[in-house]
Amino acid sequence: MLSRALCGTGRQLAPALGYLGSRQKHSLPDLPYDYGALEPHINAQIMQLHHSKHHAAYVNNLNDTEEKYKEALAKEMEFHHVGQSGPELLISSDLPTLASQSAGISGDVTAQIALQPALKFNGGGHINHSIFWTNLSPDGGGEPKGELLEAIKRDFGSFDKFKEKLTAASVGVQGSGWGWLGFNKERGHLQIAACPNQDPLQGTTGLIPLLGIDVWEHAYYLQYKNVRPDYLKAIWNVINWENVTERYMACKK
């Protein structure tokens, strides 16, 4: 019975392992503008370090972590293959081998669990920054138009009140994290949220990300020192409302 259970689990693992094995590695996306394009609001040095060092590190670490996860899954599957052929009646001579195999299975599941924080942190960092770069533009600023502006007025009272609330949520992040405008698909409403560290908005709250503001110090310290509110005041001048609107219209479909 134990060998039959092992075989069944192995069959369940096969599609997941095949999917991981066929995946292409993540890559650092190009910016849609030059490093100095957002000046004077965000200087070129910050943008270069933020993109080519910090975001690149999340991408590299995510690829490394996924490779380790694939290896742990493959080892677990090797143990599950034991007992696929031959009689399924368990005899006493099988017990030491199965005990050893069970310990190996436990160890590899433990390895997979141990990798979850790194997947969340680096995967979130890659997701968040990939959105962030497109949320900014040298031609940004001002207010959105059309349906997005109407939704903001409906859900927050006015555009100015929305700015105040998102700024307050971003200022209030303790340590490092993100301020977000998200879309609650179940309610059909816009919603403001703050996430710690690199927690991805949709993966941790269910909200679909529309606009993210990075409040890690590496996003502003070289220019604004530790005065986060000054950075947040400046970033509204480069918000790409066309991109935010596109995201909003896409998630409404």
Please describe what this structure looks like.
By secondary structure, the protein is mainly α. The chain has a domain at 44-73 and 107-251: Iron/manganese superoxide dismutase, C-terminal domain (minor pseudopilin epsh fold, 3-Layer(bab) Sandwich). Helix content is 60%, strand content 9%. The protein contains nine helices and three strands. The protein has a three-stranded antiparallel sheet with strand order 2-1-3. Helix 4 (146-156) packs across helix 5. The longest helix is centred in the middle third of the chain and has 40 residues, at 95-134. The chain is globular, with a radius of gyration of 24 Å. It starts with a helix and ends with a helix.
Structural class: mainly alpha
> Which homologous superfamily in CATH is the superfamily of the domain at 44-73 and 107-251?
Iron/manganese superoxide dismutase, C-terminal domain
Task: Provide the helix percentage.
Answer: 55-70%
In DSSP terms, counting alpha (H) and pi (I) runs of 4 or more, how many helices?
9
Family: Belongs to the iron/manganese superoxide dismutase family.
InterPro entries: Fe/Mn_Superoxide_Dismutase, Mn/Fe_SOD, Mn/Fe_SOD_BS, Mn/Fe_SOD_C, Mn/Fe_SOD_N, Mn/Fe_SOD_N_sf, SOD_C_sf
Cofactor: Mn(2+)
EC number: 1.15.1.1
Short description, anyone?
The protein is mostly helical.
Question: What's the layout of helices and strands?
Answer:
Layout: H1 2-22, H2 44-80, H3 95-134, H4 146-156, H5 159-171, E1 177-184, E2 189-196, H6 201-205, E3 208-214, H7 221-224, H8 228-235, H9 241-252
Antiparallel strand pairs: 1-2, 1-3
Helix pairs in contact: 1-2, 2-3, 4-5
